[in-house]
Amino acid sequence: MYPGPIDFVFTSCLNSLVVTCTCLTRQHKKKQNNSKKQKKAHMGGGGEIALHGKIAKSNAKYSALLSSSLPLGDDLISAAVAAEKKSAQKSAFAPTVQMIRKTETTKEEKEEKEEEETGKQQRKKQKKQTANTNTNRRMRLNGLQNYGTEYCWALDKTGTPCEKKTQKKCPVPYCSKHLRIGDDAFSTREHPLGIGKILIANYDLPKNYKMVYFGTRKPVRKLNKLRKDYMLSFWKGGGVIDPQDCPKSSKLQYMSNPGPAERSNVTCTDRMFGDTRDEGIVGREYKTTEFIPKGTQMLQFYGPQWFASRDMEKINVGTKKYPAPLKRKRGEGEK
Fold it and tell me: What whole-number distance in Å separates Cα of residue 286 and Cα of residue 272?
């Protein structure tokens, strides 16, 4: 290996120091010789001996100082050789440091790749788990609604069945979201004639699509006149369902009664959600009795005494914007 620039500087400094030291020694010897000649001319024998002793001591001190401070001759060569060895060791050590750095970077890259691979594997597992859970869901109506009560009965805003499970503490088969906002399969509108709210299908609903008329279980005696207009019978001896405590989510309470020339397309069943003395939210099952096109009103029959007890007259509720199913003529079957 060739010496570096630092080694050249070091050797040049040593050479300059050696030259200066030799010059100083020569000047010192000249001064000593001159002083000896002067003292010999003025001193006797005893003074000359004392002078020689002092000169010897000063020469010894100076030589010791030179020997301890600067390498001369062979020492200078050995120092230069040692400097070359150090530079060679540094140059030999440099590629090893580079190799160590390379190995460290390769290790870091390997660790990053391993982390990415593990993340991908975890994502794949999660996808498989979600796929398995989705496959475990049983569907009805050709995949338009969840089967059973484990998963939510409602549709999302996209018109697809909700993928969330029902609430464990609540007997109504809806998830927490649809208990709060209601089934997205239908929505409320204001009737053009000003008779109140009506219920409109947001999507084409097949026959036997299941819904829940839900609310708080209460005894009839605790309801005022307005709440009695919306109440629904529950288990015998269990009071009634009051949907007015859920004005936004319990949408079935806004279904109209069909007029004289119209027919209902929704009906209730005898299936209840909740026990006779349950406190809180309970419900009763409803279902569509026929195919309901998108934008059509959803109608239920209130009963023969509902209008008579309130001294009200039935009217047709269908409009061009929100049509209602008309009564079928004799001999005309269901389409």
Answer: 10
Query: Cβ–Cβ contacts within 10 Å for residue 237, how many?
Result: 7
The alpha-helical segments, DSSP class H, found in 182-289 are 225-228
pTM for this entry: 0.61
The highest-level CATH class for domain 140-309 is mainly beta
154 touches 162 (CB < 8 A): yes
Question: What is the rounded CA–CA span in Å between residue 250 and residue 169?
Answer: 18
**Residue 10 CB neighbour total at 10 angstroms:** 16
119 three-class SS: helix
Q: Enumerate residues 6+ apart whose C-beta is below 8 A from 152.
A: 146, 161, 162, 163, 164, 165, 166, 173, 174, 175, 178
Question: Does residue 37 or residue 157 have the better pLDDT?
Answer: 157
Nearest to 235, CA basis, from 204, 271, 197: 271
Residue indicated by tokens 């998108």: 294
Q: Give the span between the Cα atoms of 315 and 117, in whole angstroms.
A: 68
Q: What is the pLDDT of residues 202-250, one digit of tens each?
A: 999 999 999 999 999 999 999 999 999 999 999 988 999 999 999 999 9
Burial class from Cβ neighbours inside 10 Å (0-12, 13-18, 19+) for residue 193 reads exposed
